[in-house]
Target: Adenine DNA glycosylase
Amino acid sequence: MSSNFSIPVLFNIHAFQRDLILWYSEQKRTLPWRANQDPYRVWVSEIMLQQTQVDTVIPYFNQFMTRYPTVYDLAKADEQDVLKSWEGLGYYSRARNLHTAVKEVVEEYNGEVPSDKKELKKLKGIGPYTLGAILSIAFDQAEPAVDGNVMRVISRVLHIEEDIAKPKTKTLFEDVIREIISQEDPSSFNQGLMELGALICTPKKPKCDQCPVQEHCLAYEYGNQEDLPIKSKSKKQKTENFHVLVLTNSKGEYLIEKRPSDGLLANLWQFPLLPKQDAEQLPENFQNHYGAEIALEGKGESVKHVFSHVIWEVEVLFGKVGDDLQTGKFVTAQELKNYPFPNVQHKVMEQLKDRSSILGN
Model:
């Protein structure tokens, strides 16, 4: 246990476990990944649920599991198909890392998701939270799975006043959970904490009158539950400005290009995206990079997309382009549907429907 915090002597760990697990068993939501403890299903769901709301994840999880029901199906899939299945869910590195890790499970572990902590930890994309979630939910191992919901619940229950924005605080919460987790049913204990944070112990206006562990909660006793957890403000997001060029050739086909294999939105497709510049210089700069002449014809509606660390402001320009290219490819309007595009580009694509109905729904 960290020297910064000690569990209060009067805190009844056994009673807390009992009340939390009983509530979870009676009140838990029916979610598709809770149908069984299959490690692969648990793994996919936990990766999808990172930074994403449950209601958003459900349809993605269902179609993903229909398409890739086993680790073998996902391992042999083409990355572009995997990204297409993930399209719209965001944070695409999750999908790429999952795909890479599943291949390793097939090659190194005979298709069995490892239940050994050291082995599981080696797989790409599995950090401390996902590690704890898989080990506890799928394998009934008493490992902490500390996310924002869990830190919020435990900071209130035990009145922990450490700044949860600091990495060392997450380690503190992991130590706390190790001390209070149920050894008999760690799966329900961890999921109970997550569920409690999602449904009852919410960031604002927690439903303390409905809380199954209210009698154990020090913040409720002190009356300052809405002051916890303590979280310092993150740095302000920077804004980056771009032009996106929606260009058609003599056949009416659209010019698209694949993004680099690393970095933001890696390996997804896009209409050419260039740092915002003087419109008069665009044709020359475009020709230098793409090897083709363009003639701009007008502006669309600007689009904005907020990532976790940066905001993109994108001005949409329409135009014509020559047929000879050094990079990129031409596709028909119908073929656009076959490529994985990030959300910011889908916002651009919506404007094509206003200009022409050929894209369909």
